Amino acid sequence: MDQGFHFIRPLWLLLLPLGPLLLWWWQRRNDPLQRWKGMIAPHLLAHLVVGDSSHWRPRPIHFVCAAIVIGSIACAGPTWELESPPFAEDRAPLMVAMDLSPAMNAMDVSPTRLERAKQKVRDLMALRVGGRTGLIVYTNTAHMVLPPTDDAALMEMFLSALSTDLLPARGLNAGAALALADRLLDAENDPGTIVFFTSGFDDTQIPAFVAHRQHSRQQVLMLAVGTTSGGPLRMPNGGEQTEADGSPVVVKLDDRALQRLASQAHIPLASITTNNDDMQWVQREAVHHLQIVNDKSSVHWKEYGYYLCYPLVLIALFWFRRGWMVRWVFVLGFVGLGAMPSPAAAADWHVADWFFTPDQQGRWYYEHREFGRAAEHFQNPTWKAWALYQHGRWDEAQKIFETLPGPDAKFMSGNSYAHQFEYQEAKDAYNEALRMRHPFPAAEANLRLMDTLMKQRADVPPETKDEDTTPDKVKEDKEGKKGNEKETVMGKRPISLPADVWMRNLSVSPAEFLRTKFSIETGQSARPAPAPATSTAVPSS
Questions:
Q1: Half-sphere exposure of 169 (CA within 13 A, CB side)
Q2: 34, 48, 297, 415 — which has fewest CB within 10 A?
Q3: First to last CA, the chain
């Protein structure tokens, strides 16, 4: 949904002609020639006027008219970019498809194309804190390195092990990588994004991308790595690869093939940049795609009219000059303010309260991840509950979610219960959400997860004395059973080792592990590829 530049509230533009009309009326009213035109011949009148009428200088009325024009444009809400929806950053899944062809060793991008692409993936993981990101590599065949995960340390371990010698140096089967990424994202609850990092493309793969756009809910983004001027290839020992005559082998970016793909398959294409703008663009596109697919009726555009306040402030500074104050403008301003309902005065007289509502201040704190302060400012119950939830105050968030209508509120109430290890109450909330909306894949998945956790809790032997399974409290029935029976309430389950710790205990390096994995999968690649999966997987606990 790309509407380009437009206005959110175009009716405010009706005030735009008021500025030029006011200027025309003022000039006509203050023109000394107007009162004499009916009495003196026009060819004589010009010679009878005293003063330099050709010299123009700005007057207060000019700034008033400029303020009206700029203010009307600002109130109309100019925009050209979708606004990132709140809370969607944590749910937008993403798959990175990395080209491992020898061309990625070119040094036209420092230090090499592959190393720069790996650094970009690290930057993307830093932007997507809490978001699930997976990794695929491909040349003639495509292989999964890591399924969607939010573990940046695990991603870093496998990312550092990537090199162009892990796969056969022939072909660019981007269609295989697309199909593999599509299957992995189909297992996610939310629609996702597939990002290709590549320096070339095989035109025979274009039909697969065209068909994918027509039938898949996942979007595809292309990031070109390299320059059109190209650069020498680096060998494993760090030197430059040379031809038979001793000249360096130069590899150029195949931008024409990528442009053909973007044109025929309507895939957004961009180049990597020296700053973080490219990864911010990827994250915005992933979040926007999630919002548009899930709820096409609630698309929000980013407000850019606020930036026009800066020239308005500069114009206002001129009104403090002697003889420049337009008194009737302030009279109209005070009349307008007096007609507005007076908001509750802030007891502490914070300057921010003069310009922003509590919800606007809370939104600012939320976007800067200061969830505690955001919860203090929010008056909207939905936003307040979300801020409390993100701050880890699940008990308070659950109480507010319980008062809100709709299946989403019941779902979040269940999540709040689950964070407090109240699994039965969480199940009841998920069941209530499913009664309001069916199907509800996220609620169904979490409901199954609650059953699993309750079963694990029931299977814990009571004599376990591990530190993490020590009972929180022991209740004794002193009256009915004379203190002979005790009810043990178990604490947290033992925490399993993270995947990166498990991998470090292997006797092989991640690079050797990937090499062996790819070799086995390549030997089995002759088998027909399975059809794309459409089932929804249960998120891991």
A1: 7
A2: 297
A3: 35
- Inter-axis angle of helices 18-29 and 60-76, nearest 10: 170
> Rounded to an integer, what distance in angstroms lies between the CA atom of residue 443 and that of residue 420?
17
At 512, the amino acid letter reads E
111: phi then psi, degrees, rounded to nearest 5:
-75, -40
CB 184 within 8 A of CB 95: yes
Structure confidence at residue 484 (pLDDT)? 44
Q: Which residues of 350-386 are buried (b: 16+ CB within 10 A; e: fewer)?
A: eeebeeeebeebbbebbeeebbebbbebbeeebbbbb
pLDDT number for residue 84: 55
> What's the chain's length in residues?
541
- DSSP sequence for 106-161: BSSSSS-HHHHHHHHHHHHHHHTTT--EEEEEESSSEEEEEEEE--HHHHHHHHHT
**Beta strand segments in 181-230, E:** 193-198, 219-224
- Cα–Cα nearest to 98, from 123, 134, 127: 134
Q: What is the pLDDT of residue 329?
A: 57
- Determine the Cα–Cα distance for residues 518 and 97; give it in Å rounded to an integer: 15
Segment among 61-75, 103-117, 322-336, 373-387 with least mean pLDDT: 322-336
CA distance 175 to 74: 46
Cα 79–Cα 81–Cα 83 angle in degrees, nearest 5: 105
Q: Which tens digit of pLDDT belongs to each residue from 361-420?
A: 888 888 888 888 888 888 888 889 888 988 888 889 889 988 888 888 888 888 888 888
